[in-house]
Amino acid sequence: MASGSGQGGSGTHKFWDTQPVVQFDEEEADEVVEYDPDIRTGLPTTPLTLPAAFEWVDVDVEDPQMLAQVTEFLAGNYIQSPSGRFALQYGSDFMSWALTGPAAKKSWQIAVMVRDTKQMVGFISGVPILTSVFKSQRRMAFINFLAVHSSM
Predict the structure, then answer these.
(1) CA distance 89 to 27
(2) Closest CA to 147 of 85, 79, 60
(3) What are phi and psi of 145, to 5 degrees?
(4) pLDDT tens, position by position, 98-136
(5) Under DSSP, is residue 121 helix (H, G, I), strand (E, B) or coil?
(6) Angle between the 92-99 and 64-77 helix axes, to the nearest 10 degrees?
(7) Mean pLDDT across 58-72
């Protein structure tokens, strides 16, 4: 095997040595940079107003009916090829696991529903993560599911 190919830390890596990724000779970050609250200045603190026919809904995936609705909605509207020949579809067991993990926050699971019919037309969920940026760590949001009804 050539030097540096697949050998953690040994040799040079012509491609990876030029990329903004952790290098083998770097030390791990030892400080956590807290979120700067001033960055939120000017951002809205209340949900945006939706057209009258729609409403924001807090999603409770511990409710089996709501979990089924989220699972069904994502099955029909999450990552699909334009031809419809390929689509990611997750079962309710996986969705329950993905949306109720240790880092999950119920307030970060939100749907847009048609007010009269309660049909889901949008869904977003995220989890807080700690990300390494240069030699520090920052708290950020990771959006794990984002979908809008395919007819919109």
Answers:
(1) 39
(2) 79
(3) -145, 130
(4) 888 888 888 899 999 999 999 999 999 988 888 887 777
(5) strand
(6) 100
(7) 93
Q: 144, 134, 47, 66: which is closest to 99 by C-alpha?
A: 144
**Residue 12 — left, alpha, or beta (φ > 0 → left; ψ -120 to 50 → alpha)?**
beta
Q: Which pair of structure tokens corresponds to residue 25?
A: 């000779």
Q: 109: closest CA among 124, 92, 95, 122?
A: 124
Residue 131 contacts residue 140 (beta carbons within 8 Å): yes
The pLDDT score that the predictor gives to residue 135 is 75
Determine the longest span between alpha carbons in the chain, in angstroms.
Answer: 65
Using a cut of 0.70, tell me whether the model's pTM lies above it.
Answer: no
Q: How many CB atoms lie within 10 A of CB 124?
A: 16
Exposure of 147 by Cβ count < 10 A (0-12 exposed, 13-18 middle, 19+ buried)?
Answer: buried
Residues 59, 128, 147, CA angle at the centre, nearest 5°?
Answer: 45
140 closest CA partner among 129, 151, 148? 129
Q: Which CA distances in Å does 47 have to 16, 44, 52, 110, 113?
A: 42, 7, 14, 11, 14
